[in-house]
Amino acid sequence: MKIQSEKELAPYARDWLAERGAEIWEELRHIDVVGKIGSLIISIELKRNLSWKVLDQAYRNLRYSNWSYVLVPEVSLETVTPVVFRHLGIGLLRVRNQRVFVDVGARLNRCIDKSVIKLCTEEAKTTTAGLAGSPNNLGWSQFKQTIAQVTATVKASPGISIKDLIKQVGHAHYSSESCFKHCLVKYIQKGIISNIREEDGKLFPQ
Q1: Is residue 49 located within the same domain as residue 102?
Q2: Neighbours of 135 (CB within 10 A)
Q3: 160-161 and 196-199 strand pairing
């Protein structure tokens, strides 16, 4: 499937972060997608093509993030080569066959401006969830919103199958139902979702 817009790349970025147990926001400090794992921040810039401009954006994101990435479709690396990414410590992610692959790993940046972390923690004080891309979207975690929907559905229908759950809540901000199912089971097994248990493909409140 040919990716026509940067918006179509967003679910891939969210899936990649969700698989790593991150809470996810969009458009924080002009960063396209932000993942927070504990106190660590991962930033991802979404672009249809590689250019020096997006590399500059990702480099500036290092001020606010421990790891900075650029996510693109399967595109030519002639304009900006992987050597440049490695030199700057910026990671390169590319979508191939509906999956995200790490072409260049980002280098850990330990000294960052804490303002993005502060924006993320403001979520606890936010009563209204903004839409992704909204200028007021300063503390909305799609991950937590999804987990809240899952938890409410399981409490209302104890023993619901994962398949039926996905039919009811949709696959949210994940790029596919199979990815949502994979992440959901992993979160339950690792205790990230601690108020639900899974038995033979069925879900129950703890």
Answers
A1: yes
A2: 7
A3: unpaired
CATH number of the domain residue 116 falls in: 3.40.1350
Residue 159, domain CATH: 1.10.10
**C-alpha 188 chain-centroid distance:** 18
Q: Buried b / exposed e across 49-85, counting CB within 10 Å, b at 16+? A: ebeeebbebbeebbebbbbbbbbbbeeebeebeeebb
> Do 110 and 52 belong to one domain?
yes
Residue pLDDT, tens place only, 95-105: 988 889 999 99
Total structural domains in the chain? 2
Contact 90, 68 (CB under 8 A): yes
Predicted structure pTM score: 0.65
Decide: 68 and 59 in contact? Cβ < 8 Å: yes
Residue 135 located in a structural domain: no
User: Residue 67 is part of which domain span?
Assistant: 6-125
| pLDDT more than 90, % of the chain | 26
Residues 6+ apart with CB under 8 A from 8: none
Q: Mark whether 13 and 46 lie in a shared domain.
A: yes
110 is written with which tokens? Answer: 């330990």
pLDDT at 124: 38
Which of 189, 139, 170 is CA-nearest to residue 24? Answer: 139
Q: Report residue 126's pLDDT band, with 50, 70 and 90 as the boundaries.
A: very low
CB 24, CB 34: distance < 8 Å: yes
What confidence score (pLDDT) does residue 132 get?
Answer: 38
